[in-house]
Amino acid sequence: MTAARQSDQGRISSVRAQFDRVYPEGRSLHDDPHQSTTAWASEAFTRGGYGVWRPGQMVEGWPVLREGTGRIRFVGEHTETLAGYMESAVRSGHRVAEALPDPPPPPD
Asked: How confident is the model at residue 21 (pLDDT cuts 50, 70, 90)?
């Protein structure tokens, strides 16, 4: 939540400083004008977040998250084998959409 309380520029500066410690060779890339940030916890429509699993806990819960139960299906990066990335969130949406039956025809 600390990052969500920062301004966009503050969040970008904070992440840059962290990256600079790990990847000092990337400092020359800071001039790129194409930067963006999203504080998912503050995002009005998703209130995004992420799960942190205890060791072994994912093994128990993941099949239900992946396959759903009854008519309920779950999507999100946490339901894919490569969890933790936006690409996985999109893949999960495609996976579930493809598994849904065709909608019934409109009434006459």
From this structure: very high
DSSP letter for each residue of 3-65: HHHS-HHHHHHHHHHHHHHH-GGGGGGGG-S------GGG-TTT------PPTTHHHHHHHHH
**Domain ranges in the chain with CATH number 1.10.10:** 57-99
Q: Which fold has domain 57-99?
A: Arc Repressor Mutant, subunit A (1.10.10)
Q: Is the pLDDT of residue 83 over 90?
A: no
User: Cβ neighbours of residue 20 under 8 Å, at least 6 residues apart?
Assistant: 26, 27
**Pair of tokens at residue 15:** 């992440």
Place of tokens 């429509």: 45
pLDDT at 94: 95
Phi-psi map region of 8: left, alpha, beta (phi>0 left; psi -120 to 50 alpha): alpha
Exposed, middle or buried by CB within 10 Å (0-12, 13-18, 19+), for 99? Answer: exposed
- Indicate the residue type of 5: R
